Amino acid sequence: MIFKRRPHPQRLDRLTSLVGELLPEADAHTRELVASIVGLLACVAYADGEYRASEREGVRRELARVQALSPSAVDAVCALLDRDIEAIAAGGDQPWAQRIRDGLEREGRLEVLDALLEIAAADGELSTAETNFLRRLVPKLGLGQEDYVHLQSRHRGKLSVLSAATS
Question: What does each C-alpha distance from 141 to 2, 14, 80, 81, 135 come to in angstroms?
Answer without folding.
Answer: 31, 23, 25, 22, 10
